[in-house]
Amino acid sequence: MIRTILLLVSLFALGGCDWMPGKPNPDSKWREASETSDFAILYRQNCLGCHGIGQVVSGSIAMDNPTYLSVVPREVLLNVISNGVPSTAMPGFSAAVGGTLTGEQIEILTNGILAKKPAAQPSPLPPYAADPGDPARGATVFAASCASCHGNTGDGGEKAGSVINPAYLDLVSNQYLRTVVIAGRPDLGCPDFTARTPGKPLSNEEVADVTAWLISNRRNEFGKPHAPAQPPLP
Ligand code: HEC
Ligand code: HEC
Predict the structure, then answer these.
(1) Most distant pair of Cα atoms in the chain: their distance
(2) Mean pLDDT per 10-residue run, the chain (234 residues)?
(3) Ligand in nearest proximity to the CA of 150
(4) CB of 179 closer than 6 A to ligand 2?
(5) Which of 8, 96, 189, 234 is found 20 to 30 A from 81 (Cα to Cα)?
(6) What CA–CA distance (Å, rounded) separates 171 from 197?
(7) What are the pocket residues of ligand 1 if the criterion is a CB atom closer than 6 Å to any ligand atom?
(8) What Å distances lie between residue 203 and 126, 132, 160, 169, CA to CA?
């Protein structure tokens, strides 16, 4: 009897818990963030809550938006992921700014995002970055290309919400507004620059002008338009 018990105990000890239900899967074991080199895991752990991808929709632009990937330069991706965007919710991920990702992981994210760039791209493509144009002309562009969804004043229509809400405009940079003017939010139903008026893509000038019009709706804490930049003192 004692021998049987001892045998059973030793078998149990030798076998460990491997046969038991609930055995942890080695793939789901907790790892130091710096150990992960898998794009999908890095994206899910660090980006997906704010930037959708595939079937997932999130608050900010999806990182597989085809028009976005057609215009965004690789250096911009590397720089934004490393350093974030000041005064917005976009955090920097490099150790230099207190983030948790290594330079190699930031490369993996950048390459993984760019791997989804479509082979066929709209042509001609507006440049990713440019100075804002003329807000008065931008109002006309808005009326023709955006008001059908966002309402005549931009304050929301039947198909889409406000794009001039000061709380919204406070959350995003001028470049992000330009980015959305170019790439849209197809995941939410906002078409890109080619598809707002079918068959008539926005020209580079129209992209810059409507971006300027969006920016001109920013308000300070007293609800007043931001003062235009002061000319330099003589
Ligand atoms: C076919 C309808 C439609 C048209 C046309 C349209 N939008 Fe949108 N837009 C949407 C929808 C839907 C959203 C998602 C949010 C919402 O429902 O308000 C959106 C969101 C946005 C956002 C916020 C995106 C973000 O990630 O913060 C901006 C900025 C915007 N649109 C600008 C524009 C501009 C500028 C134009 C014209 C050049 C335009 N939209 C034309 C439907 C449209
Ligand atoms: C807490 C939310 C949050 C997280 C997490 C986050 N982002 Fe962002 N991201 C934002 C916001 C908000 C913006 C818009 C910033 C602006 O206004 O310019 C942004 C902007 C960006 C842009 C620039 C878009 C443009 O205008 O060209 C890129 C690229 C980007 N994020 C990539 C990433 C990647 C990759 C990750 C994961 C490593 C990530 N973000 C994690 C919120 C987030």
Answers:
(1) 103
(2) 48 51 68 81 97 96 98 98 97 97 97 97 94 98 97 96 95 97 98 91 98 95 72 61
(3) 1
(4) yes
(5) 189
(6) 28
(7) 60-61, 145-146, 148-150, 159-161, 163, 177, 180-181, 185, 188-191, 196, 210
(8) 8, 13, 23, 24
